[in-house]
Amino acid sequence: MYFREVDLIDVNSINWKIRFDRNNQTYKMLINICYLVITGLIHSEKVGDKKLMEFFDDQQMSSLYEKFLLNYFKKEHPNILTHAPQIDWQIDEGIDLLLPKMKTDVTLEYQNKILIIDAKFYSQNTLKNYGKNIHNTSNLYQIFAYVKNKQIEVQGKDIEVSGMLLYVKTSQSIQPDSDYVMSGNKISVKTLDLNQDFSLIKEQLDAFVHDYFLS
């Protein structure tokens, strides 16, 4: 009923070069999604089958990826507490005003287990070091800091805290798929293939829940 006075237009006549300001900034993401749907752009890393989404910058795509994961787990696993809280630095002395905020992308809590997921949307998921592929060091430090500070926060409560770096799959020959135990906490580095049928994406995300909370 809200759109009954709105006329239909030819989508081919739309001028997508819109100038956004503080009066219409809230419509930017919605208009970008409309552009994505209408033009049929699919984010693919396959050689020779890649369409560049210039209308979306990396920051927007990263934010969209984070929100997708957060809302997927909320909808599909309502029995699990799904949120994106901030983790406090567990400092012994001093004032933490200059310390960076530890804002999680996705945190899943079920019974006595917590899984902190840090979503990563990059064109390359590993780095080269003397010709060898290695994990992104800063990303590992980040998720390690999240997990260890959270573990100290809940100490004495018999709660197990784990962490996961979840990258979007790219065309690199080597894709992260590793599990580690670091100072008593499980840290995983995984890859999610978004260039496949949604049923397979769902299967992979559900497997994370099963492996961490139900196995």
Brief overview, please?
With 215 residues, the chain is an alpha+beta fold.
Number of helices, counting only DSSP H or I runs of 4 residues or more: 4
Q: Quick check: average pLDDT?
A: 87
Largest sheet: 6 strands, mixed
CATH topology: Trna Endonuclease, Chain: A, domain 1
What is the terminal separation in angstroms?
48 Å
Q: Helix/strand/pairing class, anyone?
A: alpha+beta
Task: Report strand order across the widest sheet.
Answer: 1-4-5-8-10-9
DSSP strand count = 10
Low-pLDDT runs:
49-55
What features would you highlight for this structure?
alpha+beta; 10 strands; 215 residues; six-stranded mixed sheet; Trna Endonuclease, Chain: A, domain 1
Would you give an account of this structure?
This protein is α+β, with helices and mostly antiparallel strands and 215 residues long. It has a single domain, classed as Trna Endonuclease, Chain: A, domain 1 (3-Layer(aba) Sandwich). The strands form three sheets. Strands 1-4-5-8-10-9 form a six-stranded mixed β-sheet, with helices on both faces. It has a two-stranded antiparallel sheet with strand order 2-3. Strands 6-7 form a two-stranded antiparallel sheet. Strand 4 and strand 5 form a beta hairpin. The termini are far apart.
How are the SSEs placed, and which strands pair?
Blueprint (H helix, E strand, L loop, with lengths): L27 H12 L18 H19 L4 E3 L2 E2 L14 E2 L2 E5 L2 E8 L6 E3 L2 E3 L2 H17 L6 E9 L9 E5 L2 E8 L5 H17 L1
Parallel strand pairs: 5-8, 8-10
Antiparallel strand pairs: 1-4, 2-3, 4-5, 6-7, 9-10
